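Notes from hallway chat w/ T.B., transcribed later so I don't forget. T.B. wanted the structure written out for a chain they're using in a teaching module, and asked if we could keep both sequence and structure tokens in one place. Agreed to drop them here.
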Amino acid sequence: QVQLVESGGGTVQPGGSLRLSCAASGSIFSIVAMGWYRRAPGKQRELVATITSGGSTNYADSVKGRFTISRDNAKNTVYLQMNSLKPEDTAVYYCYARYTIVAISTREYDSWGQGTQVTVSS
């Protein structure tokens, strides 16, 4: 019911920065939390950062201090500012949203974006 569209990926040199965006759309819904996950070549998907509708954030230890997640609840959009990028950050980054259907129930649902490639290389 909720569709997610990511943007902002690309190729950057080590130490550079990128800003990812993810916009959620669909029928009436209320976001519980949104976040970013990534899957590097040959590795399992891992959490990068999450943020609740109230603004509480959580980061993976590997990105803490370098990445910042933020949101615009009115636009149902989440951002990921990535600074001091390292080659190990190279991965496909997926937007994630957990939501409820407004005025129907408190049951939570999940949606995933298609992913955006981030490559950190000289």
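Follow-up for T.B.: The chain has no helices and eleven strands. Might be a good example for the class.
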